[in-house]
Amino acid sequence: MQIHAEFTADDRITLEISGRGMIIRYESFRQLGKVNYSVKGYEPFFEGEWLPIARFDNRKGTAQREVVRPTPMAYSALGLHFKDQWGTLTPVELFEKALEDIAENWETYRSNYDGALPAVSEDKRKQAAFNIKLLRPTLLLLVTDENTRKIMTEGMSFTPMPRENDWLLEQNTLAISKIYKKALRGELTFRQIGDHRLITHAPHEIALADIPAPSTLDF
Residue 151 in 3-state DSSP? Predict the structure, then answer.
């Protein structure tokens, strides 16, 4: 299972759980120069890519953190990888430590990546702080409850739908309803996961849009 939890319009936490273990990634969106004209019913939009900035996993039996920092001097196309070994952690311990690390360091990791990522505004910083707190119990439920994972759509992207914060609700709705997201994922819809309300997308009928099958989408 792989799902994407967006905490700003351009930043997300990807959770991937399989028989080999768990991966948690912090990823940031970078707009590319190519314009996509092919999705029927939507205005042309710039394509982009989600860049893996930091990764936390326990697939080899012990937990580790890996942070990417591109540099012209690196031999790898992805740049330098800085790894920290975190020892033996349960899935919940790894999740909690990774979420705390992302909450504290996502902006630093992002700024260290390269100059192509936009600067973080004060509103985006505020939105991220609220959303990471709201996403923590939702993601923890997915880590601990297999039945909850089964009702999630593979590759689903979502953001919190707060009950008592109108400013955050507006920001999250604007973020997830960007043209490129709706064109590739579908129009907005809502899901309830336990006690947690989420804004997400209703996948297109393939016959209505010139897009690949949902399993091949990278957004």
Answer: coil
